[in-house]
Specification:
There is one protein chain. This protein has one domain: Alpha-Beta Complex (inorganic pyrophosphatase (n-terminal core)). With 178 residues, it is α/β, with parallel strands linked by helices. It is globular and about 45 Å long. The longest helix is centred in the C-terminal third of the chain and has 14 residues. It is built from 7 helices and 5 strands, in the order αβαβαβββαααα. The strands form 2 sheets. It has a 3-stranded parallel beta sheet with strand order 3-4-5, with helices on one face.
């Protein structure tokens, strides 16, 4: 959800009118981040009927997608791994699949590389997602890009002392399927 939230803001700052949305309820970590910035993400089911173009962000398995998404409506896919989202299914989509631990790293790079101003809310969401996905930047799949973007985002924030502890140390436990 952090990557969707961040990319939506990025596109809005580049004169597009996206809606960040997700299917189902946010997991505990996403809910904590959303509550922390006093924001919400709308239900994607509502938007499917009015959207002409769909961007899939941070979904690596077909089972994560609604069956109501028509592959021809998907115009872009941004992900940190390529497990099942295949070019032969989404023939109209451009793919940006990067070897990083967190898709939020890719979104943060978009802001940084284009000198696009990022809100504190988006920076906090992306930072939290990167830190969570990398076990506080200590997991073996953490890349230099993840570390660089976490540091860049952290420099844009005033983070409460217990922010990372609540996110990474068990107060908000990881979901079983992560």
């Amino acid at each position: 959800m952090a990557a969707a939230f961040g990319y939506s803001e990025y596109l809005k700052k580049h004169d597009e009118s996206p809606a960040a949305a997700a299917f189902g309820e946010p997991d505990k970590q996403a809910k904590y981040l959303l509550d922390n910035i006093e924001e919400s993400i709308s239900d994607a089911s509502y938007h499917l009927y009015s959207m002409e173009e769909i961007v899939i962000v941070d979904a690596s398995h077909m089972r994560q997608l609604s069956t109501r998404i028509k592959p021809g409506d998907v115009k872009e896919i941004i992900n940190n791994k390529d497990d099942e989202l295949q070019e032969d299914i989404f023939t109209e989509a451009s793919f940006e699949i990067e070897d990083v631990a967190a898709t939020s790293t890719i979104i943060a790079e978009k802001f940084k590389n284009s000198d696009t101003e990022i809100s504190e809310q988006a920076a906090k969401m992306l930072y939290g997602a990167i830190v969570f996905a990398t076990d506080d930047l200590e997991s073996e799949n953490t890349t230099d890009r993840d570390r660089e973007m976490a540091e860049w985002l952290k420099g844009k924030l005033e983070i409460e002392d217990d922010f990372l502890a609540k996110l990474t140390e068990g107060e908000i436990p990881k979901d079983e399927d992560e």
